[in-house]
Specification:
The radius of gyration is 17 Å and the shape is elongated. β6, α4 and β7 (118-122) form a beta-alpha-beta unit. It has two domains: 2-71 and 168-205, D-Maltodextrin-Binding Protein, domain 2, CATH 3.40.190; 75-158, D-Maltodextrin-Binding Protein, domain 2 (3-Layer(aba) Sandwich), CATH 3.40.190.10. It is 36% helix and 19% strand. The longest helix has 17 residues, at 179-195. The protein is of the alpha/beta class.
Length: 211
């Protein structure tokens, strides 16, 4: 059983999971779960590994083991195109509602880097973008490839020149002590990075499935 949760880039993590399964010689079963429930599912042996844009934070590393990092993304923000002159720096969001995906780096950015904004957290990125289109939030913090993809697909949305830095690398996770599986996953990731296949996954997946 393999996993793709609510992810940073739709399709990207699934392609990595497929490569893992192929190299392991097993059939891939994807379980679509809420991001915040992934580690509990892994610890309970409901899934074998997590590939869901997860940052290897110290508190997570206490309960699971992480692979080598496979992706780093710049953090950005998605706004309505009509607001492009209104929002040019993080301080401009004071007094507005800003959305982000629950239990993610983006959530921390809203809480720690955007002072004076009210935070709205949802589990799915597609729901957050809908909130933005319906004027329920003024902006959504997203990794840049995802924000750019939504802006490219929607004329009424834009990614302003506001950066919140580059996130820590994301990695796959296995149960604590599962060294054999971890070694296999790392081998696959190293191969994907060396051959440039990983970059292909990223560019292809950035064309988001806008559900």
């Amino acid at each position: 059983k393999e996993i793709n949760g609510e992810d940073h880039i739709v399709g990207f993590d699934i392609e990595i999971a497929k490569a893992f399964a192929e190299d392991l010689g097993v059939e891939l079963e994807i379980k679509d779960m809420k991001f915040e429930g992934l580690i509990a599912a892994l610890v309970a042996d409901n899934i074998d590994f997590i590939v869901a844009g997860m940052v290897p934070k110290p508190e997570r590393a206490e309960v699971v083991d992480f692979s080598i990092p496979y992706y780093q993304a710049e953090q950005s923000i998605l706004i309505k195109a009509e607001d492009v002159d209104k929002f040019t720096k993080p301080e401009d969001f004071e007094g507005t509602v800003v959305g982000a995906q629950k239990a993610t780096v983006q959530e921390e950015i809203v809480l720690n880097q955007i002072t004076g904004a009210e935070y709205k957290g949802l589990s799915k990125i597609t729901d957050l973008v809908l909130e933005l289109k319906n004027d329920k939030v003024a902006a959504v913090v997203l990794v840049k490839p995802v924000a750019d993809a939504y802006a490219n697909q929607n004329d009424d949305l834009i990614v302003p020149e506001i950066s919140f830095g580059t996130e820590e690398g994301v990695a796959a996770a296995v149960n604590k002590g599962n060294a054999e599986l971890l070694a296999e996953l790392n081998k696959t990731l190293e191969n994907l990075i060396e051959t440039g296949e990983l970059d292909t996954f990223i560019s292809e997946a950035t064309l988001l499935a806008d559900e």
